[in-house]
């Protein structure tokens, strides 16, 4: 267990907190006999908004460096993929960005790789579109190369489909979201970029239910010579890679992106990629040689005509696919027409209105840890600050589900104009008492009448 002195020294040398603030919070603990004083101080600093739980955990583990990159303050990890870790970070103007940290050497060490990385990132920085996550900057510190991207609050398509509360998309939602994807990708293609790594984890669904494509240009920047089959490339990527890309990565053109869009659409409808399971060799073989099972076999309510879009996207021969996103958009747009939806899907057409974008997630960084704990000096453990394992998923607190449109919250007592359920029961009791009294009076009156 880290001592209070060690923890204080770590915080001081991290540069995360002004010395006076640290000294003030440390002084507040003087004279108290605490079982875990370092944790107590960490908790106070989190409460005060001076540290995030992630930063506190790293400091408790003994880290004093690695909290800043390119002038940004790293707040917490957002995820990790085949090309490195992604962090939520804060800029000088308190702006939030995502920073992708590329592996120090390995890939970028190759001849020309750095030149290519900066060239592709420069292209992607200039390609602005509402459905593409913006590349803000690229840079390096020591041998760490990084790219700064627009931070997208929401969920990746992968996480959304795998989340049991959501599951696979219905046709109308798929048509709307993939139309947005095709729109962003079309802009990138027109700017001379090929994505080369389109897959569900590179597509974010925002809290307003819109698409933002991530990692534009990155695959080509770091992997042109080596190809996708090189060691270290995650298996997941092969689920969405085109046959020609697997043969010769450098030769893949925009139609290769369209193949990957097809695999991604398959996943979004069926909840599984077209060639589920198997090892690397097996996946490569099947992408190149086999036709997948029709998506309609696994997906609920997908008409053959919509399945045909997936098949055309996933044609093994690039010349038989959609040749560009403009062609794809025309076919997808047909599925936004309510009349056509009703004709093809019947009652399922209404599912278009059931789509719930990922709800806003209140993060520990926003709400402070232990807000609900009235006595912060109560017993604390390292678990209170999150798991000490490297880059765990951030602790999240789910907000209550959004209210259905027809629901009206009861008015507060102070305004009290209309009746609540308790008002109703009170009214019923009063009515009962009055009725009983009237009854008794009537009985007494009748008996007096007969006796007289
Ligand atoms: N700009 C961003 N804004 C918000 N979250 C992001 C952003 N970029 C990445 N993420 C999150 O981090 C996760 C991991 O991203 P990352 O790109 O490192 O992995 P990947 O897409 O699985 O693999 P690859 O390295 O092949 O792209 C994403 O799935 C997403 O949840
Ligand atoms: Mg990615």
| Domain module count | 3
> Can you name the CATH architecture of the largest domain?
Orthogonal Bundle
User: So what's the oligomer here?
Assistant: single chain
CATH superfamily of the largest domain: Transferase(Phosphotransferase) domain 1
CA(first)-CA(last) distance: 95 Å
Structure, explained:
The chain starts with a helix and ends with a helix. The protein is α+β, with helices and mostly antiparallel strands and 452 residues long. It has helices spanning 4-14, 19-27, 37-47, 53-60, 113-126, 157-162, 171-190, 218-223, 235-238, 243-247, 254-270, 280-289, 295-298, 304-313, 325-333, 338-345, 364-367, 421-451; strands spanning 68-69, 72-81, 84-90, 96-101, 135-141, 144-150, 154-156, 203-206, 211-213, 362-363, 396-397. Mean pLDDT is 80; it is low at 225-232 and 364-425. It has a 6-stranded antiparallel β-sheet with strand order 1-2-3-4-6-5, covered by helices on one side. The longest helix has 31 residues, at 421-451. It folds into 3 domains: 4-63; 65-153 and 378-388, 2-Layer Sandwich (Phosphorylase Kinase, domain 1); 155-360, Transferase(Phosphotransferase) domain 1 (Transferase(Phosphotransferase), domain 1). The site of magnesium ion has 5 residues, from loops.
